[in-house]
Every structure is written in C-alpha cells, then in structure tokens.
UniProtKB/TrEMBL annotation:
Part of the tripartite ATP-independent periplasmic (TRAP) transport system. The chain crosses the membrane at residues 12-33, 45-64, 85-107, 127-146. The keyword Amino-acid biosynthesis does not apply. One of its GO terms (molecular function) is transmembrane transporter activity. It is a multi-pass membrane protein. Pfam families: DctQ. The complex comprises the extracytoplasmic solute receptor protein and the two transmembrane proteins. Its main location: membrane. Residues 24-153 form the Tripartite ATP-independent periplasmic transporters DctQ component domain. It comes from the Bacteria. This is TRAP transporter small permease protein. GO terms for cellular component: plasma membrane.
C-alpha cells in the first residue's frame, strides 16, 4: 500500500511538472507571437489553467515531503502526549479542510460540466476540463492527509527535527 500511495503522490508531482513545462510553452508562445506579429488565441487562458494544475497537482507531494510551511513555534517546545495531541488535532483539522476542498472542487467541476460552462476568453474551453486538475489535486491531497493521520495514530509517522523544520519557515 505504501508503494501505491507514494506512486500516486509522485505521479501527481510529475503531472504538475509537465503542466509547468506547458505553462512555460504558453508564455514563450505568447511572447514570440507578439514579437513576430501574429496572435495565438487562448495562450493566456491556457497558461492560467496550467498554472492552477501546477499548484494543485503538487500539493500532496509537497505535503508528504514536509515542504509545506508549518508554524512549529509551539510544537517544538512540546513533548510526549501534548505534542502528539497537537499533531493529531492539526492533522485532523487539515484532513477536514482537505475533504471540504476536495468536495467543492469536484462539485465545481461537475457543475461546470452539467451547465456547459465555458471560458469567457476567446478560447471557449469547457471549464470542467481544466477544473479536473484542481479536483484531482484536492483529492490526492486529502488522501495524503488521511495517510499522515493514520501514520500518526499508529505511531509510525516521522517528525521533522528542529534543523529540518527551519528550512521551510
């Protein structure tokens, strides 16, 4: 199960990296088209869609690697049961928030599909298509939070040392 979850997080990160390459391509195409006197419609909109995909698809991988910003001022001073209780509370709250975000991201994408919502830009893209990356990234983040919560309950979760925590604060 651990391999499958890690493959899920890594796969989402690779998709985020591909979206970032696509974002670069859209920006370069937009710049080149302005300089060379032609217009490619939709490059700004697609750059925005790809930027959202980059952010959402990388969330779980970043979280699992301990790269999200955490306020550890209190946490590092606590020991034993108090620290474990605070970790459990934080992971439970994060799981709840990730579940809400995933629910509403999926709902938004589904409603955009039902209502045939399209971009107001000149590309007229059905919005449910780029919203899928937001929904998928939110679901994968929820899976990562549940994963961390289960590991913490089982006592198998690794914690950052004070030196490690300083690199992302």
């Amino acid at each position: 199960m651990r391999r499958a979850l890690d493959a899920l997080y890594d796969g989402a990160a690779w998709l985020a990296a591909l979206a970032m390459i696509g974002l670069l391509a859209m920006v370069l195409l937009s710049i080149a088209s302005r300089q060379l006197g032609f217009h490619v419609p939709g490059t700004d909109a697609y750059a925005g869609y790809l930027m959202a995909a980059c952010g959402f698809l990388a969330l779980a991988h970043t979280f699992k690697r301990g790269e999200h910003i955490r306020v550890t001022l209190i946490l590092l001073r606590l020991k034993g049961r108090a620290r474990r209780a605070l970790e459990l509370w934080a992971l439970a709250a994060g799981t709840l928030l990730a579940a809400l975000a995933a629910f509403y991201a999926v709902r938004l994408s589904w409603q955009s599909h039902l209502f045939h919502d399209i971009s107001t830009s000149n590309d007229a893209t059905p919005l449910w298509i780029p919203q899928l990356s937001m929904a998928a990234g939110s679901i994968i983040l929820l899976v990562a939070f549940v994963d961390e919560l289960v590991l913490e309950v089982q006592g198998r979760r690794s914690h950052a040392t004070p030196d490690e925590a300083l690199r992302n604060e």
